[in-house]
Write a structure and sequence with these properties.
The chain is α+β, with helices and mostly antiparallel strands and about 400 residues long. The protein has a domain at about 160-280: Rossmann fold (3-Layer(aba) Sandwich), CATH 3.40.50.1240. The protein is about 35% helix and about 15% strand. The chain contains 14 helices and twelve strands. It has helices spanning about 10-15, 75-95, 115-125, 160-170, 170-180, 185-195, 225-240, 255-260, 265-275, 275-285, 285-295, 310-320, 365-370, 400-405, and strands at about 5, 35-40, 105-110, 210, 220-225, 305-310, 340-345, 350-360, 380, 390, 390-395, 395. The strands form three sheets. Strands 1, 2, 3, 6, 7, 8, 9 and 12 form an eight-stranded mixed sheet that branches. A two-stranded antiparallel ribbon has the order 4-5. Helix 7 crosses helix 9 (about 265-275). The model is unreliable at about 1-25 (pLDDT under 50).
Length: about 400
């Protein structure tokens, strides 16, 4: 059953953010007014999803402890999400998308993981502190084909075609080998953090990067160096974003500069596995209808928020050829709490257009839980590939947007 969220109007949180933080909010192109928003958002900061987080031999010390179970949203992560909800509220009331008083109807859909459900709840509470909340999601840990259509066999998927698409993007098997060579300095630096002192039996470089054999109805998967490096680099990022003492971030050996530099492994994994169109279209088969409903349905809510995962963000980026760079993270790496925001903009005749943004706290803002009233989040306009409308490159007519999303 479709459920909706009632959005509160004036609040202390919303009013407190109406000043400096909004100075960086990109204004719509001349003659257009913000009419609706759909955002696909990654959950907030979490621990590694399993314990121990990586296979034996990846590091030579025990990994730090976390305050919650593996994969759950942390209290720190929840506050970060609340800060984003307050920022979005102020931006959208300032743009007259949402009223300053009373309740408006918006829709929130979450995946069934604890972290995505709790992210949706935290975001809703900041966005609507005085209104009741109803969030659509399956029972916790019951797989949802909206967010995992390939794994749940909810969409036709040819694993051999997917493998071919990944190899084409990588430049073939030789391209994967070249990736290890190109990123050799980063791999060496990561092993220094993981295995001080470095030994042949410790680290991520014990096996070269390869593409695992295709499995029926399963997404492509890397193995070897880049696969392990991606996971390790993401753990370091999460440790830092959680606000852990620097002595616990890479055992005191990782710096913020290291985290940004080594994030290339996570971004490269997504470039290879989640952004190729054949894989991205299948991976987004459940979410694309939600996006189109939110943007085109006659009585859709003003805001549709979808609480998902970095893989979902990367696949939507692949479908629309979107690229971003959050300060402190590698290019195209989906940040905790970061979102691709799709705005429906209308002109005086009622004709609709779509603009894409990426909105996220920077890595430092995530770590210190910065107040958006004092430090605006990163917000950037992302040109949508193949679109030009009203003389604006990257702005889509609604028809062109649907074609790009579904072709």
């Amino acid at each position: 059953m479709r459920k909706f969220l009632r959005l509160a109007g004036a609040s202390i949180v919303g009013l407190s953010l109406a000043g400096a933080a909004l100075a960086q909010q990109p204004a719509p192109p001349t003659g257009l007014k913000l009419d609706r928003v759909v955002l696909l958002m990654r959950h907030g900061v979490r621990p590694p999803t399993k314990s121990p987080p990586m296979p034996e031999g990846t590091s030579n010390q025990n990994w730090p402890n976390w305050p919650v179970a593996p994969g759950y949203l942390t209290p720190h992560g929840r506050v970060g999400v609340e800060r984003l909800g307050g920022y979005d509220r102020s931006a959208w009331t300032a743009a007259a998308l949402l009223p300053r008083s009373g309740c408006a109807t918006i829709r929130i859909v979450a995946d069934s993981d604890e972290r995505t459900i709790r992210t949706a709840e935290a975001y809703a509470e900041a966005l609507a502190p005085s209104c009741s909340v109803a969030i659509e999601h399956k029972p916790q840990d019951v797989a949802d084909p909206i967010f995992s259509p390939i794994d749940e066999r909810a969409v036709p998927f040819d694993a051999a075609k997917a493998r071919a698409a990944v190899l084409a993007g990588a430049g073939g098997e030789a391209g994967l080998a070249a990736l290890d060579q190109r990123l050799a300095p980063e791999l060496a630096r990561l092993d220094t953090i993981l295995c001080q002192p470095v030994t042949p039996s410790c680290g991520v470089r014990q096996k070269p990067t390869g593409l695992a054999p295709a499995k029926l109805d399963k997404r492509p998967k890397l193995n070897g160096a880049i696969d392990r490096a991606s996971t390790a680099a993401q753990i370091l990022l999460l440790e830092y974003a959680e606000g852990k003492p620097m002595a616990e971030v890479g055992w005191g050996r990782a710096t913020p500069a290291d985290i940004e530099r080594l994030g290339v492994f996570h971004a490269e994994e997504f470039r290879l596995l989640a952004r190729p169109r054949y894989v991205a279209k299948a991976n987004m088969a459940g979410i694309v209808p939600l996006i189109l409903q939110g943007l085109t349905a006659a009585k859709a809510p003003a805001v549709t928020m979808i609480s998902g995962h970095d893989t979902n963000i990367a696949s939507l980026g692949g479908l629309l050829d979107l690229h971003w760079k959050v300060p402190g993270l590698a290019a195209d790496d989906p940040a905790p709490g970061g979102a691709i925001v799709l705005e429906r903009l209308v002109d005086a005749r009622g004709w609709a257009y779509v603009r894409a943004l990426y909105r996220s706290q920077t890595l430092e803002q995530l770590r210190k839980l910065a107040d958006p009233a004092a430090e605006a989040p990163y917000v950037a306009v992302l040109p949508i590939a193949g679109c030009t409308a009203r003389g604006v490159v990257g702005l889509c007519t609604m028809q062109a947007f649907q074609a790009q999303l579904t072709r």
